[in-house]
Amino acid sequence: MIADLVTTGPSTDKPSCKAMPSSVIVHSPHGRWKVCVLGLHLSTNTLMITVFSLSPNFYDKVCPQALPTIKRVVEVAVHKEHHMGASLLHLHFHDCFVNGCDGSLLLDSTYFETEKIARGNFISVRGLEVVNQIKGGVDRVCECPIVSCDDILAMAAQDSVVAVIFNTLVRLGRRDSTRAWKYLANSTLPSISMDLPQLISNFKNQGLNKRDLVALSDGHTIGFSQCVIFRNRIYNATDIDLAFSKERRATCPRTGGNTNLTPFDLTLARFDTTYSKNPDAFWVDFGKSMIRMGNIKPLTGKQGQIRVNCRKMNK
Ligand code: HEM
Question: Which residues catalyse the reaction (predicted)?
Answer without folding.
Answer: 94
